[in-house]
Amino acid sequence: MSQRRILLGVTGGIAAYKSAELVRLLKKSGHEVRVVMTAGAEAFVTPMTFQALSGEPVRTGLLDPAAEAGMGHIELAKWADLVVVAPASADFMARFANGMADDLLTTICSATESPIALAPAMNQAMWKNHRTQRNLALLQADPQVTLWGPALGDQACGDTGPGRMLEALDIVDRVNAPAGSDLAGRRVVITAGPTREAIDPVRYITNHSSGKMGYALAEAARRAGAQVTLISGPVTLAAPDGVDLRMITTAAELLKASGAAVDEGCDIFIATAAVADYRPETCAEQKVKKSGEQISLSLVRNPDILATVAARPDAPFMVGFAAETSDIERYALDKLTRKRLAMIVANDVSRPEVGFNSDQNAVTVFWPGGQQSFGARSKVGLAVELVALIADRYRAVRAQ
Ligand code: C5P
User: Fold this and answer.
1) CATH: 3.40.50.1950, 3.30.565.10, 3.30.530.20, 3.40.50.1980. Which one for 5-176?
2) What's the pLDDT tens digit per position in 181-193?
């Protein structure tokens, strides 16, 4: 990880108190940090706080007689190799999206040629407001700008919804994400684990999926800067930090939760869930009693979640997993085309040391016109490499 010269812009919002911790964590990661505050920010936190934490004078005014040639904004714009605005208020987003340069921070943003990352923070209704969304669309289309967040959750005003600033640690993760694995600002939905299909109140059909690969991918995608929703079947794993975890039990619930997550906004959909292909036609209301020597269970086909999402007109970049026991390449390539996927990750679950329930995995990834193999390695390490490859392919497809 390289040391960076970070210009942190702080605008007026209650989340400005979190920016003090952000400065501390950025410095701890080895970065140089200089802080510029808007007039609104000064109503929430004092420049002295940031000066003490950054070890640098804090700039607040556009015309600074103390700066070289009185043009502090140009010096700072050239000095920074990354500009992070956190919190970015609705007012700042509006002024910046429209090219205004009416205070020091917007002027620096106009003068810098370095990337600019915004961590929005505002009340959920302000975030959803059509004017804010119009400004957001302008910023999303700007190649110099990346949006980090906002997150969903409780707000200082008592509301709940989108508009919370990302936690300082999440912003630092995005700053530190290795080049090439960068998913900053991307929304990634991952399905993981098995599904359970009830036979009666005490019995169900399931499989050996542990969820480890999906959870490791969720962690790796978050570290690469993505906003991650993890939809998980019943597993015994701890919830990864900073990931929006939604638990489901059945394939029908997984389908519903996946549709809802994609409706909320999704750039990349990764399906690692081992979905039961069939479910009992009916679930007995009472426990089925032992009777004759044989019993038969009528099963009906479950929906294919991956194929259903891929068939949407607004389908995200789709990544499937294919757990096979033979003829891996042929089956994987068939699924790639049949399910209309951008990539498929194939693993041989017949090998006892890798795959289901193991901490290790070995896979080959296929995409239209290419493939890459990863020999046996830990699922955590593999997840980091897969996320980097997915990010590369995603960028390549978008650039076409
Ligand atoms: O089961 P199959 O080999 O077809 O699974 C391939 C991919 O499709 C996996 O990514 C899996 O998560 C997904 N899948 C799904 N819904 C199903 C079956 C599979 O999303 N009902």
Assistant:
1) 3.40.50.1950
2) 678 778 999 999 9
